[in-house]
Amino acid sequence: MTDSLLPTATDRVAADALRAALACDDGAALDPARWSELARAGWLELLVDTDLSVPQAIPGFLPLLEVLGHQVVPGPVALSIGLAAPLLAASGSAAPRAALGDGRIFTAATEVSAVEAPPGEIVATPADGRFLLTGRCDLVPWLRDADEVLVRAARPDGAPVLACVRLASAGTDTVHAHSIDPTTSTGSLILSGAAAVPLTVTDAELDLARACYSLVLDAQAIGSAAELVRRTVAYVTDRRQFGQAIGSFQAVKHRIAEMVRVTEVARSMAWLASTRFAASPTAPPWEDVDASRVCAGDAARRAAAEAIQCFGGMGFTWEQGLHQHYRRTLLAGSLHGNVEAAARRLVRHGVAQAASAR
Length: 358
Known about the structure:
Helix content is 54%, strand content 16%. The chain is of the alpha+beta class. It has 3 domains: 2-105; 107-201, Butyryl-CoA Dehydrogenase, subunit A, domain 2 (Beta Barrel); 204-357, Butyryl-CoA Dehydrogenase, subunit A, domain 3 (Up-down Bundle). The strands form 2 sheets. Strands 1, 2, 3, 4, 5, 6 and 7 form a 7-stranded mixed β-sheet that branches. A two-stranded antiparallel sheet has the order 8-9. Helix 9 (250-279) runs antiparallel to helix 10 (286-311) and helix 10 crosses helix 12. The N and C termini lie far apart (47 Å). Residues 4-15 have low confidence and may be disordered. This is Acyl-CoA dehydrogenase domain-containing protein. One of its GO terms (molecular function) is acyl-CoA dehydrogenase activity. It holds the Pfam family Acyl-CoA_dh_1. It comes from Pseudofrankia inefficax (strain DSM 45817 / CECT 9037 / DDB 130130 / EuI1c).
């Protein structure tokens, strides 16, 4: 299905660019030339370069976005498509959006991407139409590879502001940290009077972008789970013990059936959340978006764990890249789109509904 969608979703050049980006080996380092090709082909602005609003565009592109999870693609692809592009488009700032389209690599502090996150500890001081930022952001993903970082700061009066910082500018420093996912660099961003371009984005537009990013992460997670189902079925069909394929053993059948079940439940939940989001673009249905985040994150994690178990008999799961899917799943479910936080919000929503029904 995704192969048939690639040529029709955009022009042939763009389809080839995505295939080239996805053709990299699991765990490979980010290739700036390949990233620029992907950007110039229009894939990073997939959801904003249409006649539809971003929420209305998501349901139609969900099957295509699942392709992002088939390989552990290095670089902030999901973040660029689901968060950076919608925010830059909403801000109306031509220069940062042009930079994204030209292949500059954007990332975002967790205070920007995380739902219900406070502005953080960065102070923004107005200066000649810009802001001078002072403070620190920790656990910034893809910091080593990025050219620009979206940060959320507070003015001296406490009002929140979204700004774009160029990492090569004066007053910026980075401290890199080890990550459980080798393809995702993390680190701390230290700002000491760094110049930043303000992005005029309302709280409603920020919420919309966060919901969009969550659903793109869901599609990526579902794609990862589906790919692991495909790989595992192929392996257990070929691998033989005691004169028969190990896929014929009941214990293995049950594991694969569970992988398929959680993947299809997550896919259905993502479709439901995206269609309801499209019907209510100004007020994201957070209970549905959070339910999708929980289902998709759980599906990817469980599929990766079951795949490792089914491949375990060969003794070479490391060479199959399964651990890369598992590592990316753990990081995506915590740092990028926090599954536990989404589950807590769902519990609060359920308690509130129960209380109102009394």
